[in-house]
Give the backbone structure.
Amino acid sequence: MPAFLASVSSREGMVNAVLAGLLLAAPLIAFTLDEPFYISLATRVAILALAGVGLNLALGYGGMVSFGHAAFFGLGGYVAGIAAFHAFDGSDFIVWPLTLGGTDQLLIIWPLTVLVVAVVAFAIGVISLRTSGVYFIMITLAFAQMIYYLAISIPTYGGEDGLAIYLRNQLPLGDSNDPLTFFFVCYGMLLLALFVSSRLVASPFGVALQCARMNEVRLATMGIAPFPVKLTAFVISGVITGIAGALFADLNGFVGPSMLSWHRSGEIMIFVILGGVGRLFGPLAGAALFILLESLIGGMTDRWQLFLGAILLGVVLFARGGLIGLLAGRARHD
Amino acid sequence: MLEARGIESFYGPSQALFGVDLTVAEGAMVALLGRNGMGKTTTIRTICGLMPARGGSLLSFLGKDIRGLPAFRVAQLGVGLVPEGRRCFPNLTVGENLLATARGAGWDMKAVAALFPKLEERRDQSARTLSGGEQQMLAIGRALMTNPRLLILDEATEGLAPVVRQEIWAAIAAVRQRGQSILIVDKNLKDLLPLADACVILEKGHTVWQGRPDDLAADAALQDRYLGV
């Protein structure tokens, strides 16, 4: 890959490094001050940012405004929850044609999450990507709602009440119950997803994806069919968000239909928009601001979302590059 | 390599092409001529699969029937289009515009940079910030990066300053020199005819004249009849 294609303006690179550094520093400071609550808060930021990184690939780079990413987020959560449920219970997930029990091993749960979410994202993508614009938004929302109501209607897995994960799923090395260890796991996942995203976006595939966002016909006349490119990106995007969901369920020790609800889709979208659509570290900035507002203003008043709304409105009206745009200037493309 | 017989096509219910005959031989440069609104761009769009060919007995490329193929298939077979009005991807850099469509061997970043040194200078700049001439160079470069068997140029020099226009013509001549098959639409006969191997004139969606560029250049009446304004 020629260096000029991967080049990011040095100022944005610096802002990104500072953001990543801050997120790493926060739990370490909390640890020395013996404030485990803030470690879990930083873990939340890392996980929600990861979900945003997933959506950013579809929304920011591919122009696919998916209002159904909670489906992938929640599915990831349910994979972790159901696996843990059966492992705790000693019961089987299915008995025919082959017997599948539960597991509490994260190294099995994560690949399983990838598989399940990829299959579902593929099915949703194949149908949804035949539409565009408002119809795409609505059809992705509709699919997410279908999965939401499916989750509500299965009593085995808690129905409306959700499913508790009594013991956090385990890692082979290290203790996942240790807040700091679990933070590092989530932080590592976030960095990995950011790295994968940056490489994808700079690759011919990523460039074709951005071309598809701008003009599909123009891309087609150059010999690249837009549909498979968009579908692939949609699936990768869903999988990243799904992994975030699996981590989120383990962080909270709980998975419920709320993880699948359309509010959640909106939240993930807010991370991306607040941080900066199509900016690599945008979701991290957005998720961090969201969580900060939620915990700071939310501590003072229940109506903290009023402030969130005002800030979101401000960003949309006056800072279209989002937080990253404010800090690092306009993207080199815009 | 490209052969069209009696091609017809429609914009909705209104017919635009009534019978276009066109042949491009391997390694040849064919000029597609005619006044505005006579069907030149429509012919190109039909060849590229951007609109369906509804009638006609033949539309084949490299011996393969391309009627009804989607645009990306036609492009994969080796038709590289430089559309009218340039149409780069404005939010991508010059380098990304070229990278996006790169395929095959022959034309690569280096070769395109040698053909258009200006693109090399502007590699990290977004395509939106280029001048019209530079965007045209980028559009040609982008099409060449797909290493097409047939390059189609639709009004590649339209609306450009004379100096820039000469640069584009020089590049087209250089590309042709490498044995590239070309189908070109342009109004500037003075520059076009010396380069072309054959000419096709359209009028009201019909092919009305085919022949050698010398004959067309020598026949003022013919030019006046079909091309004069």
The longest strand of chain B covers residues 14-24. The beta strands of chain B are 2-11, 14-24, 29-33, 58-61, 64-65, 79-82, 150-154, 181-185, 198-203, 206-211. The radius of gyration of chain B is 17 Å. Chain B touches chain A at residues 48, 50, 70-73, 75-76, 80-81, 83, 87, 89-93, 95-96, 99-103, 109, 123-124, 126, 142-143, 146 (CB under 8 Å).
